[in-house]
Batch of 2 targets.
Target 1
Amino acid sequence: ARTGTAEAVLCEGKSPDIVAAIVDKALDHGRRLLLTRISEHHLTVLDRPGVDLDRESGTAILGPPSSDTRAGACIVTAGSSDIGIAREASRTLAFHGYAGPVISDVGVAGLWRLMERLDEIRSHRVLIAVAGMEGALFSVLTGLVRAPVIAVPSPVGYGVARDGAAALSSALATCAAGLTVVNTGNGFGAACAAIRMLRMADPE
Amino acid sequence: ARTGTAEAVLCEGKSPDIVAAIVDKALDHGRRLLLTRISEHHLTVLDRPGVDLDRESGTAILGPPSSDTRAGACIVTAGSSDIGIAREASRTLAFHGYAGPVISDVGVAGLWRLMERLDEIRSHRVLIAVAGMEGALFSVLTGLVRAPVIAVPSPVGYGVARDGAAALSSALATCAAGLTVVNTGNGFGAACAAIRMLRMADPE
Amino acid sequence: ARTGTAEAVLCEGKSPDIVAAIVDKALDHGRRLLLTRISEHHLTVLDRPGVDLDRESGTAILGPPSSDTRAGACIVTAGSSDIGIAREASRTLAFHGYAGPVISDVGVAGLWRLMERLDEIRSHRVLIAVAGMEGALFSVLTGLVRAPVIAVPSPVGYGVARDGAAALSSALATCAAGLTVVNTGNGFGAACAAIRMLRMADPE
Amino acid sequence: ARTGTAEAVLCEGKSPDIVAAIVDKALDHGRRLLLTRISEHHLTVLDRPGVDLDRESGTAILGPPSSDTRAGACIVTAGSSDIGIAREASRTLAFHGYAGPVISDVGVAGLWRLMERLDEIRSHRVLIAVAGMEGALFSVLTGLVRAPVIAVPSPVGYGVARDGAAALSSALATCAAGLTVVNTGNGFGAACAAIRMLRMADPE
Amino acid sequence: ARTGTAEAVLCEGKSPDIVAAIVDKALDHGRRLLLTRISEHHLTVLDRPGVDLDRESGTAILGPPSSDTRAGACIVTAGSSDIGIAREASRTLAFHGYAGPVISDVGVAGLWRLMERLDEIRSHRVLIAVAGMEGALFSVLTGLVRAPVIAVPSPVGYGVARDGAAALSSALATCAAGLTVVNTGNGFGAACAAIRMLRMADPE
Amino acid sequence: ARTGTAEAVLCEGKSPDIVAAIVDKALDHGRRLLLTRISEHHLTVLDRPGVDLDRESGTAILGPPSSDTRAGACIVTAGSSDIGIAREASRTLAFHGYAGPVISDVGVAGLWRLMERLDEIRSHRVLIAVAGMEGALFSVLTGLVRAPVIAVPSPVGYGVARDGAAALSSALATCAAGLTVVNTGNGFGAACAAIRMLRMADPE
Amino acid sequence: ARTGTAEAVLCEGKSPDIVAAIVDKALDHGRRLLLTRISEHHLTVLDRPGVDLDRESGTAILGPPSSDTRAGACIVTAGSSDIGIAREASRTLAFHGYAGPVISDVGVAGLWRLMERLDEIRSHRVLIAVAGMEGALFSVLTGLVRAPVIAVPSPVGYGVARDGAAALSSALATCAAGLTVVNTGNGFGAACAAIRMLRMADPE
Amino acid sequence: ARTGTAEAVLCEGKSPDIVAAIVDKALDHGRRLLLTRISEHHLTVLDRPGVDLDRESGTAILGPPSSDTRAGACIVTAGSSDIGIAREASRTLAFHGYAGPVISDVGVAGLWRLMERLDEIRSHRVLIAVAGMEGALFSVLTGLVRAPVIAVPSPVGYGVARDGAAALSSALATCAAGLTVVNTGNGFGAACAAIRMLRMADPE
Ligand SMILES: Nc1ncnc2c1ncn2[C@@H]1O[C@H](COP(=O)(O)O)[C@@H](O)[C@H]1O
Ligand SMILES: Nc1ncnc2c1ncn2[C@@H]1O[C@H](COP(=O)(O)O)[C@@H](O)[C@H]1O
Ligand SMILES: Nc1ncnc2c1ncn2[C@@H]1O[C@H](COP(=O)(O)O)[C@@H](O)[C@H]1O
Ligand SMILES: Nc1ncnc2c1ncn2[C@@H]1O[C@H](COP(=O)(O)O)[C@@H](O)[C@H]1O
Ligand SMILES: [Mg+2]
Ligand SMILES: [Mg+2]
Ligand SMILES: [Mg+2]
Ligand SMILES: [Mg+2]
Ligand SMILES: [Mg+2]
Ligand SMILES: [Mg+2]
Ligand SMILES: [Mg+2]
Ligand SMILES: [Mg+2]
């Protein structure tokens, strides 16, 4: 709140009992709430009225949708495996009243796919890029646009790419000035950073 | 250029001869140029008229200063060892026509020092934080302000902190949503990202 | 015993059969015993009379409770996910006759929560801090108190924070002099070290 | 010899005395020889008639130049810091009688530079790509051509890119099928692999 | 396509729903398709007519077999645990119309087994070597043949060999010039690289 | 100060000019000051009256010695290479008015040397152990005494022990409950933690 | 065979079908065979007459027991969790006709337990030591005996000790000359090395 | 002594003053002494009568040569860069009265060189193998002989082979049962282990 974005509940590492208690309390007080990194064993305590649950991204939202939707950040993904993280970012934006459109499957192994969508991508004020494997999308995209780009390495890949290790070091080591990075898989954090940028531009 | 910020010359890894050739060509064409990560063995070829050389940050600027100076990003450092990186960021902002004031030595081992400067820090639109060792400043600062914060881990420290390793993982692992990160020591990249954010807010 | 604290049985890595044999023998001899890092597959052999089993912390205690409870160490946690480790420490203290009150959810992303509890925290002679993610709590807390602080990194987090890696290096790299560290997740060891400190102050 | 390429002398890790002895013997026998990874302290024993020494690449060649020069592999570099490694590859090709033209400074932070040279690049049968920092060039280039591409990560970079670590994992983790990789800095090995490919196509 | 080999669908990291959708679309359009890294939970959506599924290699092929089979690459494995990866390479070759015979269980702990098959191995124009544990096969094989060799480290092993870590660094660090490397487990990529080499030799 | 121990100046990473400025200011104000991790290039600015410089430990003390010397912590080292770190701890204790006797060269490769000094070691209330290589001393010592033991891994060793890596993980992974750890080489931090323990026992 | 010890079948990484085929063939030919690293999913194909299966160590032996049992190597373990690996070594010795007595639970956290068994340990010609966590047993034991000692790090432990990482680096970094090391968990390899030593002493 | 081999003085990490003091004392007492890992800055204090100094291996021996020389261990190296480590082993054997002949430059990139020397190698009772880069020699050699083989990874190599990292993991991950390993560069430790084996076979 004091920082302009809500604290979310990070469900990973919490027992279903603890998550259930947090949800009960929020519903009782009619408080809006965002939950992230929900996994299989949390589902039973979250599958109930008043909880807008999205399995693909492992997120849940309590309380009414945000009343208005301002222009927000565009989320660009390298492959269709990155969609869960993209939706974590998109729903975090929505929770705070911002649009979060997703353009997916434009990784650089097929550069023309990125080029075809470039005008659309350039029309947004802040970009969030999600990529796993070698994460070459981060550098290429940042070199093609003027907006700030936030890289979210995704844990897609095997061998040296396992858990997003290669994509993370790619994002940090980039030659393309203007790219900043959040932790592997942290779509929530990328969205919150994007919101800080948008608020700076349009103070309420 | 196409991205709104200039490409700089990364001198680390280039022989003095190559750097000299680049500088000659730029001076001949009267082109403005920013050079970063200059080290001892480059100094002789850079100590000449027309080159504004700053040893502390390992940067050099060719060409006339930027004509106007818009409000830019404030750079906050944990310790006095971080000043070289802070100046790399500050001079990159100056090169592009933005102010880059530095507030130093406000690491969290003495939390009151940070608190005393908090109002001043909060008056800026974008923040760049530089810290080595365990990098606790990144999370604490981000939790106290509304502006976007860009973390630059600094290679200050020994043992597990050597080469900034602890500070980097601290910055990425932060619980404080709204923080983004660049590579250890990359004051240049942090400044370029800040400029993208400022331009997004005030398109020319 | 010769060191002033009991050796505990580390159940992780032992088959249920081996654990059952150890428990049988202790019950037969009427020996007090502490078991740690109990997991799912050990539960059936431990769910029996005479065994005080705590699933949240994965600990079990055999034998009568300690006769008296001296003032001990206060355990401070960053988030509610750290509670299992906090209880491992707390129950180890109890087993040896010391109090181990827990103050939880005072991580630095919301610094005011820590500040509100500071007087209470300062009233204890030894502190144990438990934190995952980037572990910024360790440095901030140590900079605010005069007591010795023992850091227990917790394996909460993903990406670079997986398995507590970021919290561990944060704790070791701290600028805040007076902090010492135990292995990730080692609430038992932190409690034993605290007991050594308390005994040194109040030799029996 | 039995493998179609010569064994070279890896000077790194050998004392100047040992290198001198090897050179003496080769000159005495009139044997052609390639030496790689020559550093400062080897120079005095190599600066003599009959030794074609190239400081930039740290290579030396003994004996007459190769009699003919067949079409070989084209070496593409991301930045001007990669030139030493590019020349190690190029001179290894020359030693075996193949051309090794270098196209430099076409890194993807400025994608148009790569695009401008693409026709020229596509005219070669085997490509060797040299890049440091995040090594995004490897994936982008491989996605744009039909020839086999061999990646040589270069030890250019700092922070997570130090010693070529980020470029190496990028090359291995690539989504662009058809790329193979050699050790960081191994221009010699890349050239030998290229020669095996060319010989397979045109058996002598 | 533009690169001479097909893009495959990497199933790892994709939900069964997404994979099913991709397969439906390809079958509808009568498009040939290669799927790789299929795991248990994908099997139900792939066990259907028109899909040639191979569990051992985790690959599936849609569409008619390739019309002709040209001489391709020979795949050599160290042990019988490497067979899954060998078949991923072999089926990728087949998908593109090339033969991919497998010679298995010739690891260097029993050097004579390799020697017995050496003439057969030498009769192929391109070699793919698959090995886990310490991966000594890569260097020994490359030193015995004239063909280009592509190393595929396999994730077979425990301790320091877990996930193929030792085999990967062995392959990259080789003294045997002429070896190139792909990511651990990437039989698909090795085959695509082999195809580029074969096409370079025999342009269609 | 607020924490009961002084903040020291960490000289590593600071230019001689910055260190000189800090010293000037302290001497002008007659302030006592501790400087740590002084290296060669700082020596010229520190070799002056009023500065008690110790090269072996890389520490300097400004101002009058502490008026009284209370019983403090005993520092135990494995080998004679650990003496610099032992003295950093010892001088930090002295600066704060505590004794810091050193018992050296009692590593466990010769267990009888440790056993001969055991009574003396047991007479101290807090122990600091310094060891490099495999750091087996930490576990053995902690298993033999009742006092709290603080491990300082030392950067002595080569191969897997380089930079103290093996000793650090040994200290953290110990089976001997009651051991806590500080960063490799951090004699200063170990002493400050010891002082917190001693003050807790004897509040002034 | 040519090396004096049998090649064993490493079951980890092989499908049950492959293991079954190997076993069938050996039984058909009446060949003696040792299988190691058997896990849960292999059990059904191994639970049959003629197979001496030991679940605790994950080993199986086909064929008649060795006819005689010569004095062999003594296996010393730090804790009761190391028993599986100790038995892998013991059964490998037995398979080759050597005794392999196990002395367990003599880790150095309770040094007197090791001292009580020292005479017995000293009576053996070759020692194999198994330890997890920080592996301090390796150095202490080697410093107390004259026999060659082979360290087998065990994957017992959590945090920095996970997968035996701390024990492995401890064993390699030892100050106690005369210790050699095999891969984490490799009881089989340790036994084979011990047999080579015993055979060297008593050539058949 | 109690272990059958002498403790040596590890000079790395010790100041010249400390080394000089140790040498003075030994010369005064007429004690035989072995010093290892001597570097440039120790040379002045060791270049004196009564000290048998060998720069190539960084070792020095004080006192009379060993009176007799028994058959010892044969040291086999992959390349001529490994000679310093080979001599450290050889001189350690000599110091204890054992022969230590060296067979060098038989790495597996040229397998025939190893084969040519195989009979000679097989005539020795214990083997020490020294190799850097990918260390394939360890596995190949162990698979060809019956003697115990001790691997000494050597810090020769660059990229992933830097500091012997690839050779070390290769040695540990070997498929060739009967190989044991010491720390990278530890020729001294390998020789001491060999001596334990030889003494076991021929007790004095
Ligand atoms: N997916 C996420 N990644 C990173 N931080 C998060 C995420 N979700 C929530 N958080 C933050 O992590 C902290 C969660 O703390 P808690 O839920 O109290 O353990 C809060 O500061 C949240 O804002
Ligand atoms: N097994 C594999 N390893 C590496 N890359 C692959 C593999 N299978 C497919 N790919 C490539 O990885 C990308 C997968 O993209 P997508 O399926 O869209 O997420 C495509 O460029 C594929 O050609
Ligand atoms: N050797 C040391 N190791 C760890 N921290 C130190 C050391 N010396 C000083 N410090 C602390 O590190 C910080 C140094 O900050 P500064 O000198 O302002 O860069 C202060 O909080 C010191 O107390
Ligand atoms: N090159 C070496 N590598 C490993 N250990 C060594 C080496 N040289 C000596 N040592 C041992 O390391 C210890 C050195 O102790 P000190 O010289 O007292 O620091 C003694 O136990 C020596 O036997
Ligand atoms: Mg795609
Ligand atoms: Mg400071
Ligand atoms: Mg919380
Ligand atoms: Mg460039
Ligand atoms: Mg095999
Ligand atoms: Mg010693
Ligand atoms: Mg035990
Ligand atoms: Mg050689």
Note: Residues 9-62 of chain F form one domain.
Target 2
Amino acid sequence: MEYIEQSFEVKFAYKVFFTNHIFDPSNLTIAAFLDSRADKDITKKLLIILDGGVLKHHPQLEQQITTYFQAVKGFQLIPEIIVIAGGEAVKNDEPLFYKLVDAIDHHGIDRHSFVIGIGGGSVLDLVGYVAAVSHRGIKHIRIPTTVLSQNDSGVGVKNGINYKGKKNFLGTFAPPVAVFNDAELLTTLDPRDWRAGISEAVKVALIKDASFFSWLETNAAALVAGNMPVMQELIYRCAALHMAHIGGAGDPFESGSSRPLDFGHWSAHKLEQLTHFSLRHGEAVSIGIAVDSVYSYLLGWIDEAAMTRIVTLLVQLQLPIYHPLLEMQDGKISPVIAGLEEFREHLGGRLTISLLRAIGKGEEVHEMDLDLLQQAVATCAQWNTTAS
Amino acid sequence: MEYIEQSFEVKFAYKVFFTNHIFDPSNLTIAAFLDSRADKDITKKLLIILDGGVLKHHPQLEQQITTYFQAVKGFQLIPEIIVIAGGEAVKNDEPLFYKLVDAIDHHGIDRHSFVIGIGGGSVLDLVGYVAAVSHRGIKHIRIPTTVLSQNDSGVGVKNGINYKGKKNFLGTFAPPVAVFNDAELLTTLDPRDWRAGISEAVKVALIKDASFFSWLETNAAALVAGNMPVMQELIYRCAALHMAHIGGAGDPFESGSSRPLDFGHWSAHKLEQLTHFSLRHGEAVSIGIAVDSVYSYLLGWIDEAAMTRIVTLLVQLQLPIYHPLLEMQDGKISPVIAGLEEFREHLGGRLTISLLRAIGKGEEVHEMDLDLLQQAVATCAQWNTTAS
């Protein structure tokens, strides 16, 4: 059989910067990065897409951005900063996707240019997708503005939008060229969003790093109280663990079935969808962590003390550990647990779910016992009653 | 400045197979490939999207496909083979894009599954894009059915659709998992399509391989006469040169500005657009090769003998070397040459155009002299008059 074999590697590299007051003229973090990408022969364009929720709390931001980039040589800021709504809804908004593609066309944004998304995870997912498919990939910069996007989604390599209600049905793997985490932007977060973002740190600690889990226990009260230096340390450590997994586990673009970072997520995705996103992603993940941790205990994989530590930490962080949709409804299987079957189908017939062998050690299974799962839900319900 | 650095490499590998009668039950090329991708635990799905133009000439194809895959264990063919129109128009058809995405959703095609596109370059571009963005990337297999797609676009790593008339405005770099070139499928090609596909071979010979160019001169008459073994050798050598460039030049996903494989293409893209695709891509490329070769001569980069050899070969291959749209229109600059300015803007202010230093050796420039270009056009017009 005659054939030609093609084989090549593509290298991806980017830095995630941690800073404060990123658009203060004296803060050179972005300016220095751009300077490293300048080219004396051409002026590169910058197109900014800004989360309206962020702008509301930082009304001076547009002016700050304009002033900041005027001082950066070799780059031309497109004067029209595009402001879009924030939140999951933007990922369901197909006309908005095309509006952003049109802006890229209209402003002549090419592969030398940079699209800069400023906002929460949903806005960054949308902007990243627009950049990834326009001209087969325009460079994009992320400036995440929530705990969740600064420690998890914003530092990773995925983007996407929903299609006909299916989360992230359309998307790509396309690493950003840089990420800038500005702690100052977190100061105006709704307390619910502040706390919800912590659940991804609990998740990554549980599957990867027992000492980080202990650190979270020690610092739970400070985190809930809004202590910024503690939150900055959390974000740094969580982002580092998340990135180490993507870069180090050998499958950054998920060509295989393994998804250890999705611990607690199978039920979370379903809960978000069934509650029409009235649950924050981080809150749904917290519930998912509780259920899968209790399930790991009932399976005999972790001991009661470990389970108690996990649930206690979530409760201390004022994160939810239970939702009524987890119960059987009218004698029928819980709609969330029914989602497990959909998930199995989605994965092509073989389930891959992360559970816990210990605090700090995730392990995958390919089957879940539905009775045991319903028992785990009952335990979470009990904990929930005790906690409230 | 505090930062975390992310760095990883993603490996891509695929084979391009050369065969005959690919869906004959005794031809095990596809079956053996799929067998290498089988998994005893799950049945993987196959979704086929077929170019209606191919089906017209091979009406037995649907039945052959169905019979063929029934014999392949571990895979389930989605019974509904999706037949779409062929040609550039499919890349302008946004509802068709969503129809294919819907089919992926409806049939539960996941990342274990394979989407198989069978058709000319336009159909493969569309199918590749649909696969690339659905579920952040479903594995796709290409079965190109034209000379052009078997020797050039189909063996590469790009996909895309047009947006508001802009060619390939939306797309990604997403290598296929396998390509199957079936010579039998070329036997029913329109002679115009048969010949047009040869121009990409002339192009790659000119920039990469002088001996291949000599081979083309030797075999021009046989190619025009429809000699299949000669055409198969052409396709193999052209595909090999094309793939060697993608895999070997260090920038398979075109993060830089260099586009040596685009020799002759700046004017070709504009000619296609201005003629509303009544010119085939390969015909437009032939004209583009002629113009940029003559320009290379006028620049003093190649001698008259080389220029004469190039134009003579194109004429012998019955490929066009001139189009009236290259002339000034009503005293104004040619709309094709005006496209050079658009192209410069598209590239962010710095033009990158491949020219010839010799037969077999391309070299890039960042400026083109418009007067000299108009002179090159006049020379092509003269050659054209002489030839016809």
Note: The first strand of chain A starts at residue 2 and ends at 19.
